[in-house]
Specification:
CATH topology of the largest domain: Rossmann fold
Largest sheet: 6 strands, parallel
Structural class: alpha/beta
Number of domains: 3
Mean pLDDT: 84
């Protein structure tokens, strides 16, 4: 066979395009209108059981798959949600991403995940890119948007929902744990255990979770006549958490108990205290974290913490997104769910210590 005959035998682009199955082909085979086919493959649209059966059988026979991009041009909806996350070294967020993705998929939406460093410039750059994908909504987890970008999202009609953060914008909705209450519960627990001097290792100073947890902790200490005697900043980061742990014990007096703003940092702090400084937990120093991530439950840590109701937080987030998509008014812009204090051995003094 010559080279020329090989070239003639190859299918042309026009031939390939003729084999593409369209919704019109499905409609003809099913004996329904093209709009009926569209309704069958559009979540929430109405179609009779008989029509659904005929269309699905025809689609299966022809090997038809709906074109989401083409549909988005017609409906103005991409059925994609942009999720912006600053970091994943906090064990809390990978679990949340999985739950949120599954819940949104059940509603017919898919999640595009974008990573953004913890600076306003980087976050804004990432969100600018997200807007080019014609997404239907943005969920921010552990990040904040600048006022300029907030206005852009508002003008584009793209709702922004904050997960585990509060940024006080009238057009933003947020879902968080009641972090102030959580900090208060921790202070009350430590006082009840007999601790009388207290340290605090902060997360990112600008984060609402950090501010509220510390405020609740400090206020309750003050109510009982105590205060934070040693403070350091870990910025929710591993290496900085280690430095913060060393800083806490190098201050004027080692506190009897330390509240660390989240579990990911608290686990690092515990290792520093035990393996680098030779301290015993809780005999020499008590430790409490926040989040109740899986490693905190291991016997080697057994960390007292506040459990965030992850499933409820995800459900509320999806509910708000669906309300946005349906054009319903949002009744409550800031949803705060109560967390639960989980008491473990890292903060439990023995009777003779008390």
């Amino acid at each position: 066979m010559s080279d020329n005959s090989l070239i003639k035998a190859a299918p042309s682009l026009s031939d390939a395009s003729q084999t593409k199955i369209t919704s019109m082909d499905v409609a003809k085979l099913a004996g329904v209108s093209q709009s009926a086919v569209s309704r069958v493959f559009t979540k929430g649209a109405s179609a009779s059981a008989k029509t659904v059966e005929k269309v699905q059988n025809a689609a299966k026979e022809l090997g038809y798959r709906p074109n989401r991009i083409a549909r988005s041009l017609l409906t103005g909806r991409s059925y994609m949600i942009g999720l912006v996350v600053a970091y994943l070294d906090n064990y809390f967020y990978p679990e949340i991403l999985e739950r949120l993705s599954h819940s949104l998929q059940k509603e017919g939406y898919h999640v595009l995940i974008f990573m953004a460093a913890q600076t306003a410039q980087n976050v804004d750059k990432v969100v600018e890119e997200i807007l080019e994908y014609q997404i239907d909504a943005i969920v921010t987890a552990s990040v904040a948007l600048s006022s300029e970008l907030t206005t852009k999202c508002e003008n584009a009609g793209i709702p922004v929902l904050q997960f585990n953060r509060i940024q006080h914008q009238s057009s933003f909705a947020s879902v968080t744990t009641d972090n102030h209450l959580g900090g208060s519960l921790i202070a009350k627990h430590l006082i009840d255990q007999g601790y009388r001097s207290f340290g605090y290792i902060a997360g990112c100073e600008g984060a609402s979770t950090q501010r509220d947890r510390e405020a609740g902790f400090r206020q309750t200490l003050n109510d009982y006549g105590f205060d934070i005697t040693a403070r350091a900043v870990g910025n929710f980061r591993t290496e900085q958490s280690r430095e913060a742990a060393l800083s806490i014990v190098n201050q004027s007096a080692i506190p009897e108990a330390v509240f660390v703003a989240n579990d990911a940092m608290a686990l690092v702090v515990m290792d520093v205290f035990r393996f680098e400084l030779g301290l015993t937990i809780p005999d020499d120093i008590g430790i409490v974290g926040y989040d109740d991530v899986p490693p905190s439950r291991l016997a080697s840590y057994d960390l007292t913490t506040v459990s965030q109701p992850a499933e409820q937080m995800v459900q509320q987030t999806v509910l708000l997104i669906m309300q946005y998509m349906q054009g319903k008014p949002i009744q409550q812009n800031e949803i705060k769910l109560p967390g639960q204090l989980i008491i473990r051995s890292s903060s439990q003094k023995t009777q003779h210590q008390k």
